[in-house]
Structures are given as structure tokens and as C-alpha cells.
Design brief:
Number of helices: 18
Mean pLDDT: 81
Low-confidence stretches: 1-22, 462-470
Strand content: under 5%
Order of helices and strands: HEHHHHHHHHHHEHHHHHHH
Helix content: over 70%
Largest sheet: 2 strands, parallel
Radius of gyration: 23 Å
Length: 470
């Protein structure tokens, strides 16, 4: 418990929901946010965030489960299916680009409300699309608004345990709806609608309110949080900003300064490799596993996919507990190297006799390999938080996400061209080799080991400007 509770506290704090009391003095908002002890409010906020991520996951994870319906209704081939999958990534790239601007101008809560509302309407409209081109346009637009809303949750939303829960809902629903693509899109619309309604349970970030001069609103938020947490709060406290501020054009310039250029380059490489390997297994994985393990069955192996999803969930839990012990480099080895090895072993089972023992072996290898990727994603997000100061963190993650989704678009389009020409086991060999190669690249390019490194609030250039102004 000595490291789990501080880690949970850091998670809550990163969502701008941990608050403190003050005694009437002028205090930086960062200090006020740090000093409130953990309470039932923080637990409730973590549960809300996990539920929100599960609802977000439904929109993202439905892509491969819509393929059978799109093939039947629109006669889509592999190339068109890859275009549909790439439409999500292209929309996310645009959304990740504009999200920081909206968050800084509107705040987290209005941005989340706006993105959820637009995504709900577009998902509902997509369910009644009359042509494949129409559904592509609507998918791109809805994914852009989805990415904008998702960015409002903050960077650590990516590692919550809600994502496998959302994927499980999609797997079960696709079976219940018998691959009806319209009902799956309506499910995504309902999920985002529920998220929209749930935004009435959260507050705007007090850090943002102070940064924009809305001091009284920030005090009201802090008073409510303290009341619900059973802690004392003095409304006479004079709130002020610490050295951090909203993201501005200087943040983007500093990212490519001599101090952060190597770290920014590694961040772009890291998230691109994560995206390339993840989008391949998420998009084509269900189809590949069906062809490898159940070649005579035309239906997706949903029970098997649910087992793999459970493996992903277990991997997330284990990675959260051990990632600080094995370090970021160790986590990258598990997420890339060990996963790639397991995928190659899974591909090698095609030469075995097709019986129950072989199926059990394939299921075990697939579940363990699915549990590995959570290590890489957990380490990547934590590395970004530890290596970039607060004043640059939003800009660094935003740019990394843009490049990440752009790489996924290229990967999906290239992979579709040879998907039909290769058997499933060869595709898994390619995927496993790609993971191993990605692990080598990450090991070579990683500039530092950041595990246990304290977070910084501002860069050296920001500190110099602050001292000069003083």
C-alpha cells in the first residue's frame, strides 16, 4: 500500500480534482490542489473517470465489429474497411490538434460537454447513412469531436481500467445485435449521450478558473469540494497561479529547444510505434484470430475475444502495480519485446494439429500477449508526465497524439493492401516482428529512465522568465 495510495493520489491530482484548505494567505493554486487528503470524493471521481473512459471506448472499439455489417450492407471490401478504420484515426488527429486550444479557451468541462454533444448527434446521424461515403464522412467528424472530448479528461485517462469494460460492452452487443452496424452506432450514440448527462456531476478545473481570472468561481468550486470531503476551507484565501500557465505559443517553441528536442523526438517515435502496433491488432485482430483458430466459422470468435479482453484488463492492473519497480525501460520491453515474442509463438501454432489442446494453447498465448500492451501504454504516458514540465506537458501530448493518429492512418491503409494476400499466421508473424523491431527502436532511442523522477512544474526557460519578471 506504500506505493499504491500515492499513485492513486497522483492520478486524482492529475485530473485537477484534489483540493486543499488554506488559512487566508495568498497561496498558489497548485499548492491548494495538493494538500487535501484523500477522501470519498476522490474515490468517486476516479470511478466517474473510469466510467467515462468506458463510454469513450465504445465509440472507438466498435470499428472491427462493424466490418461484417458493412460488408453485407454496402459490399465493402478490405480496402474500404481499412478506409473506414482510418477515418476514425484521421478524425482523432484533427481533434487532438484543436483540443488544446478549446480546453484553454473554454475550459475542460465546456470542452467535454461540446465534444460529447456533437459526437452523440453525429453517431445518431451515422446510423441512418444511406451510402458508404456518407458514413465515412460522419465517422471522421464524430471521431474529431470524440478526440476533443477525450482530451478534456486529461492524459491519465488513457490508463484507467474503464477501457476494457467499454470494449466488453461492444463485444457482447455485437453478438446481441447480430452484426447490425446501425444498432452498434446507436449504441455509441447512447454511450456518448450518457456521458453528456454525467457531466453535470463534475466541476470545472479550479486551476483553469484561476488562470482565466475567475477567482470567485474557483473559490466556489473549492468550497463545494471541501464540504463534500469533510475538510475546512477559508473563502478568504487569496488564490494565485504558480509558475505554470495556460498553453501558449511559447510552449510549442520550447518543445523544440535544445533542452527538450531529444525528449520530444523520442515521444513522437514512441507514440507512433504504439499506435502502429495497437491499431493493427485492434482493427484486424478479430478477423485474424477467426481465420487462425476457427477457419471454418464465418462468425467472429466473441468468446475468445472476451478472454483476450480480460487479459488486457489484467495487464492494466498488473502494470499499474509494478511499472515503477521495473522502470519505464522494463515496461517497454514487456509491452513491445515480450508481446512480439508471444505473437510469434501464437503464429507458430498454425502447424499444430487443430484440436482442443491447440485451441487452449492459442487462447493462453493470445490472452498473455493482450496483457502486455498495457505495460507499454502505461509507461509511455508516465514517461511523458515525468519528462515534460506542466507548462509544456499539454503541448507535448497533443503533438504526440496528432503524429500517433496520423501514423495509424498510414499503417491501416498499407496493411489493407496485403491483408487478403497473406494467411493469418503470416500476418501474426509480421505483427510480432513489428513489435520486436519497435522494442529495439524504443530501447535505442530512449534518452532517460524517468521512473521515480519527481514531476516539474515549469521548464528552465519558464523559470528564467519568471525570475526576470521578478
Amino acid at each position: 500500500h506504500g506505493f499504491v495510495l500515492p499513485r492513486l493520489y497522483f492520478y486524482v491530482r492529475s485530473m485537477h480534482k484534489g483540493y486543499s484548505s488554506c488559512d487566508g494567505a495568498s497561496l498558489p493554486i497548485g499548492q491548494v490542489l495538493d494538500e487535501l487528503p484523500l477522501s470519498s470524493f476522490h474515490i468517486g471521481h476516479v470511478l466517474w473517470t473510469a466510467t467515462a473512459v468506458a463510454l469513450f471506448a465504445i465509440h472507438c472499439e466498435l470499428t472491427p465489429y462493424m466490418f461484417p455489417g458493412l460488408q453485407i450492407h454496402f459490399g465493402a471490401d478490405k480496402e474500404e474497411l481499412s478506409t473506414y478504420a482510418a477515418a476514425f484515426q484521421a478524425g482523432c488527429a484533427f481533434g487532438a490538434l484543436v483540443a488544446p486550444v478549446l480546453v484553454d479557451k473554454l475550459g475542460r468541462e465546456p470542452t467535454l460537454v461540446f465534444g460529447a454533444l456533437v459526437t452523440t448527434l453525429l453517431n445518431y446521424s451515422s446510423a441512418f447513412a444511406t451510402s458508404f461515403n456518407m458514413i465515412l464522412v460522419l465517422r471522421t467528424l464524430s471521431s474529431a469531436s470524440w478526440a476533443i472530448a477525450y482530451a478534456a479528461l486529461g492524459p491519465l485517462a488513457a490508463i484507467t481500467l474503464g477501457w476494457p469494460a467499454g470494449r466488453a460492452v461492444v463485444i457482447v452487443s455485437s453478438d446481441f445485435f447480430n452484426d447490425d452496424w446501425q444498432k452498434l452506432l446507436l449504441l455509441a450514440a447512447v454511450a456518448m449521450g450518457v456521458l453528456l448527462l454525467s457531466t453535470t456531476l463534475i466541476h470545472e478545473s479550479p486551476r483553469y478558473l484561476v488562470a482565466t481570472g475567475r477567482i470567485e468561481e474557483a473559490k466556489a468550486v473549492l468550497s463545494d469540494i471541501h464540504r463534500r470531503s469533510g475538510a475546512h476551507w477559508s473563502s478568504d484565501c487569496r488564490l494565485c497561479l504558480d509558475h505554470t500557465s495556460l498553453t501558449d505559443e511559447r510552449s510549442w517553441y520550447e518543445l523544440f529547444s535544445a533542452e527538450y528536442l531529444a525528449k520530444m523526438r523520442f515521444s513522437l517515435i514512441l507514440f507512433s510505434l504504439l499506435s502502429m502496433t495497437t491499431c493493427l491488432i485492434d482493427t484486424w485482430g478479430p478477423m485474424l484470430f477467426q481465420n487462425l483458430m476457427f477457419p471454418e466459422d464465418n462468425a467472429l470468435p466473441r468468446m475468445l475475444l472476451m478472454i483476450f479482453n480480460l487479459g488486457d484488463l489484467c495487464g492494466l492492473v498488473v502494470s499499474i502495480l509494478v511499472v515503477d519497480f521495473i522502470g519505464r525501460k522494463g515496461s517497454f520491453f514487456v509491452g513491445f519485446g515480450f508481446q512480439g515474442t508471444l505473437l510469434l509463438c501464437l503464429a507458430g501454432t498454425h502447424s499444430l494439429k487443430s484440436d482442443d489442446a491447440c485451441l487452449y494453447l492459442q487462447s493462453i498465448l493470445g490472452a498473455i500477449s493482450a496483457s502486455c500492451r498495457g505495460f507499454a501504454w502505461e509507461a509511455a504516458v508516465m514517461w511523458s508526465l515525468e519528462e515534460f514540465p506542466t507548462s509544456l506537458r499539454a503541448a507535448a501530448l497533443s503533438l504526440s497524439r496528432v503524429v500517433m493518429h496520423s501514423s495509424a492512418v498510414i499503417t491501416l491503409k498499407v496493411s489493407a493492401q496485403c491483408l487478403s494476400a497473406l494467411p493469418a499466421f503470416m500476418w501474426l508473424q509480421i505483427l510480432g516482428s513489428t513489435c520486436l523491431a519497435a522494442g529495439v527502436v524504443v530501447a535505442v532511442c530512449n534518452p532517460t529512465e524517468s521512473a521515480g523522477k519527481p514531476l516539474t512544474e515549469h521548464s528552465s526557460e519558464t523559470s528564467y522568465r519568471a525570475c526576470s519578471q521578478a
